[in-house]
Amino acid sequence: MYELIILEIRPRLCSVNGFVKFSNRPDDVKVSLDDDLKLVFNRREEKIPCQFTGIVKNSLTVKVNDTHVIFRFATKNEASGSFKTEVLQNTATNFKFSHDKPLFSANTSYTCLCGKCKTPLTNPLVFERILPLPSDNSDPNEWFCHRSDVGNNFNLDPKPSDIFYTHCLVHLNIQNIQNVDETGKIVFCKSCQDWLGLKYNDNTAKFWLNTVEFISDNNLVSTSSLQDVFNVINSVFQQKLQSSVKIMLCCQTTINNIEAVLLWILEKRLEVFYDNSREEKKCDVAKVLFKSVDNHDNIFDQWKNDLMVDTIDVSKSMILSVSNHLAECNRALPDEFAKSNDFNVSYLFMYDGCTI
Fold it and tell me: What is the pLDDT of residues 84-138, one digit of tens each?
């Protein structure tokens, strides 16, 4: 029995790359291509549905190793018959965002809790000003359309009655915070010692909504760490016209250590079909090269100082979630396709709620 099947479908290139992963190498594998792809192994036959790709039947190439069947075949691009048509169809990409809706309501009492042990981190708060931050990097210069003297006199730190937010983090006045420990800039829950966020400056605490939660009488404001990573990456994609993008996700985990995941996006939106023996699904993914590093590695400084790299601060749970996601997808690939240029190859199942 196979563990996983992945088909990478590239209509513009008229090709499909496929990987079938086995738990144990079958004795004798035969692969044939007709209206479907057929695998015959251990006296049983498995069909991989490929009707949606417009198969060129005599184009199949196959390689079998200890854990995988690797294959490739050509397809007919009937929807795009010319180079001009293909360019017109593939230059625009639509992205869906879920963080435009305000997260907090006026005249509502909220209490901030530790996301892990539920220890109250504030007394009940009613916010008079609820303002969106300009980006996940929260750079105050981005609050103005041009440089002016107003930036020197205008205080962007939240007052005790303010909350500033993005889709995945908040800025709170430090006077509101209780039941926490601080080590340098890092803020921990005093009860469970879970990583909560950072002391942004002397007046402001920066918490992520996947490490804390806000409760009111009829509402809970909390987010998923992996979905927050996907939203951050989507935000970068919306600002970039290039198909290849570099993103550096950073988190200060101790006084002397900053962990980072380096993402080199190869394809922003790649159509895949996958079958994990429990379900079959066709969806879009981002194909990436990734590498986990820290601030003691030379490549950390190289990427940090590269103006072409988008560097974004994230929470510790976001680093862990995306690292696990990337590693799981990487394990699905054959060894010869799992690494490139000293990076690991993987997918981000970041569209349409798809999971591997």
Answer: 444 444 433 454 544 457 889 999 999 999 999 999 999 999 999 999 988 665 4
- What would the DSSP string read from start to end of 33-102? ESSSEEEEETTEEEEE--GGG-B-TT--EEEE-SSEEEEEEEB---S--SHHHHHHHHS------S--S-
Query: What CATH number has the domain spanning 2-90?
Result: 2.60.40.790
Instruction: Give residue-wise pLDDT tens across range 171-215.
Output: 999 999 999 999 999 999 999 999 999 999 999 999 999 999 999
* Whole-angstrom distance, CA of residue 239 vs CA of residue 229: 16
Question: Nearest-5° angle of CA 263, CA 266, CA 268?
Answer: 90
Concatenating the DSSP letter of every residue in 112-178 gives EEETTT--B-S--EE-SEEEE-SSTT--GGGGSSS--THHHH---SPPTTEEEE-SSEEEEEGGG--
From residue 93, give the alpha-carbon distance in Å to each of 238, 270, 311, 352.
Answer: 9, 12, 23, 14
Do the Cβ atoms of 311 and 250 come closer than 8 Å? yes
Q: Which of 318, 326, 320, 333 is nearest to 347 (CA)?
A: 326
Question: Would you identify the CATH topology of the domain 109-221?
Answer: 2.170.150
Domain boundaries, the chain: 2-90, 109-221, 225-269+285-348
The answer to whether residues 86 and 30 touch, using CB atoms and an 8 Å cutoff, is no
- Which long-range contacts link 46-53 to residues 24+ away (Cβ below 8 Å)? 46/2, 48/5, 48/7, 48/18, 48/20, 48/275, 49/273, 49/280, 50/7, 50/16, 52/9, 52/273, 52/282, 53/7, 53/9, 53/16
